[in-house]
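Subgroup meeting minutes
Present: P.N., E.W., G.H.
Scribe: E.W.

1. P.N. recapped why we're keeping a running log of single-chain structure predictions: easier to compare across weeks, and new members can see raw inputs and outputs side by side.
2. G.H. added today's entry (261 aa).
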Amino acid sequence: MAHFNRQSSQFDGLQEIVQLPEVWQDDNGTLPATNQDIKKSPLNPSDWYIYGAKSSIGLFVVQTLAPRKLFQLQPSTVITDQKAALQYLKKENWQTIESQKGSIQSVLISSQLSPESSTDDIEQRWIEQRWEEGDRALLPHIYGGIGGKNKEPAAQSPFYFGHFSYGGTRPVCDLLIKLDAFTQDFDFEGIPDSALRGTISQLEAMMARYRIGDGTGGTYVGPANNCAQDSNQSLCAALRRMETLFETHHDWLRQWQQIQP
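Output recorded in log:
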């Protein structure tokens, strides 16, 4: 393994031998991930980030790894048309995931570019919108079940419940929504606040409710109580709170209108 070199911004630094253990199967014999033939992965040329700890003999043991390409936020495709964007999010995105297993696709959806934009215009706009360290965004996250030869038990039927959240683990489809009017802090009488901060607060409250079952000590999943309902209820509560603040403080509303794209 070659370490990242800050001077060259490449993985051509100090070389070190690391241990990459086999992934353990769960109780159902299903692998949550695999490192088999990792050298043949289409993501291998762009390198990997590894996380772990040293063993008792000083050998670094890899506990988690992620492809570097996943974190570069460099779009392979740009969509500017609203209708095409909805079509991609609803249908084409999942078709791509199914047909290109083991790969990553990064798509930039921007309403600030016209369908007639040239390649140079798109590249220039991407440079202007480039993400910087410290930028904040809303992360809608979706995943489905593990299929294949060793399916998850819940995936044996035609339907799988899946999961939806803001944040989360085990990603299959993640969106990063960068919108200043949502993520940027407002000055509420000397106290910084934003819709994103409110959403985080509501999600923390929802997590606390799950731990105690709203005081009953138990919780359950159903049509009215599930990950999608609860995540979006938290978002809705945060937006309603901001709406109430703006209705009672018109100077704050003008401040919000000034930063809208």
